[in-house]
Amino acid sequence: MSATNCPYAQIPRYTCRRAPTPASLDGDLDKPFWRHIEQTSLFADLDTGARAHLETRAALQWDDDALYFGFWASDPDVRTLDTERAIMNWQENAVILCLAFPGAVYELGVSPAGKADALALVWKDAYARGGHYDVPEFSLARLRPFVIDETQGKVHARGPRWGFEKWELPGMQAAVRVDGVLNDRHHVDQGWTAEIALPWSGMKLLDDKEVLPPRSGTELRVELGRTEVVEGPGSSATALWTWAHHGSSALHIPECYPVITLSGE
Rounded distance, CA 33 to CA 99, Å? Predict the structure, then answer.
């Protein structure tokens, strides 16, 4: 079964404007840098599009140095489980971004404690000898990536991908701020915010079709989301809420990602 059926009319579009002031990442989204920046719609269930029980929004902007992401996550109990990703399984409270280029998808998760965990998926058909990804940063022999040929039971029509765990995008920065008390189950919190910067220079390692350098009118495919561990009697499950409605539980499907257009305004 193909996982590439995403009607274009249902995919969000977002105008990403130039940052009004120089960036300084500290997790504070009340500062002038983020004022008057258009936010996304509320994140909803990845599969069904149902409303999430906690509100999450995001915003983006850019300058000549980087692409910036701000996340607002409401939560009366801000906590972190300090878990490690198990290949594709992510059981942690976190905000997530996925950035797609023609040959690869980069995923980054940031927890309320500021811990960042990354993953790069490179299509096998883009990994040619002497090609863009045949470089030390994506060495198959040294990094020993896993192979993914399906996502949540759905085989992608394009075929398998190499999965590079904990792949670091050079120069990535992340900062968080908690409005409450982290990991205190007895304190009622308001939520937490996160700021992330992905420098264009680091993205060049993923840009196999020369989408960059950035300029007004450049289009990128970006999905934004949030994972939240929901506890039940004697068990727990991880909810995944995203900006776009995928119509399945498969996150790493770039055809479903919102379209981001850089604006010079």
Answer: 22
